[in-house]
UniProtKB/TrEMBL annotation:
Annotated APS kinase domain residues: 26-176
InterPro entries referenced in this protein's UniProt entry, alphabetically: APS, APS_kinase_dom, P-loop_NTPase
Name of the protein in question: Adenylyl-sulfate kinase
Enzyme class: transferase
Species: Lactiplantibacillus fabifermentans DSM 21115
Pathway(s) per entry: Sulfur metabolism; hydrogen sulfide biosynthesis; sulfite from sulfate: step 2/3
Lipid biosynthesis listed as a keyword: no
Amino acid sequence: MTKSDNITWQNSKVDKDQRQQLLGHKSAVLWFTGLSGSGKSTIANEVEKRLYENQITSYVLDGDNVRFGLNSNLGFSAEDRQENIRRIGEVSKLFVDAGVITLTAFISPYREDRDNVRKLLATDEFIEIFVDTPIEVCEDRDVKQLYAKARRGEIKGFTGIDAPYEAPDKPEITVDTSKQPLATSVDQIMAYLNEHDYINVETADEV
Ligand SMILES: Nc1ncnc2c1ncn2[C@@H]1O[C@H](COP(=O)(O)OS(=O)(=O)O)[C@@H](OP(=O)(O)O)[C@H]1O
Ligand SMILES: Nc1ncnc2c1ncn2[C@@H]1O[C@H](COP(=O)(O)OP(=O)(O)O)[C@@H](O)[C@H]1O
C-alpha cells in the first residue's frame, strides 16, 4: 500500500542474478533476533568479518546505528518498533537486490513483524537467526547498563522486563551464547551458508 498516486515501477537493465554473478555469491538477509545483550551485534559483526576475509560482499544493519539516522524519528512503542522493522525489511530487500549478504541486528520482538519481512523476500532469501540467550545472562552482562535502568524504572517498556519478546517458531538457525563461544556461532552460520550454497568457502578460519 502506498500514499502516492501517479507512480510507476521503473525496471532496471541489470538484474539481481547478474549482480550476484558479478559478486560470485548469492544474496540473502541473515536476520538476527534476540534480547538486548544476547549477542546479535557481536555475532553479526564477526560473521561480516569472516565473509569479508573470504571476498564476500556483506553489510551489517545494526539497531542502535540505524536509530541514529534513518529511524531517528522512532521510539520503542509497539507501533514504532513495527515501523522500525518494516523499514529495515524494505532496506534489506534493496540490499539483497544489490547482491549483498545483509546482516540485521535488531531485537525485532514481534513475530508478526519478522514474518512480514520474511514475506517481502523469496523463500531462501530470509534466514532467521534466533540468538536464544537467557535473559538472566543478558541482564548479568548488562553491556549498556540498560537492564539496571529498566529495573529502577528509569526506562519504560524495556524488552524482556516490561515489554514482550516473542521467540521465533521455526528459525533457520538458533544460537545460545551462554552455551557456546562466539567462534562456534560464527562457524555454525558460515556452515549454513556453505551447505545451502549461498557461498563457497573452503575452510573455517579462526575468529
Ligand atoms: N525500551 C527499550 N527496549 C529495548 N531496547 C532499548 C530500549 N530503549 C533503548 N534500547 C536500546 O535500543 C536497542 C534496540 O533497538 P532495536 O531497533 O533493535 O529495537 S526493536 O527491534 O525496534 O525492538 C537496544 O540495543 P541492543 O542491546 O543492541 O539490542 C538497546 O540498546
Ligand atoms: N559466546 C558469546 N557470543 C557472543 N557474545 C558474547 C558471548 N559471550 C559473551 N558475549 C558478550 O555479550 C555481549 C553481547 O552484546 P551485543 O552483541 O551488543 O548484543 P545485542 O546486539 O544482542 O544487544 C558482548 O559484550 C559480548 O562480548
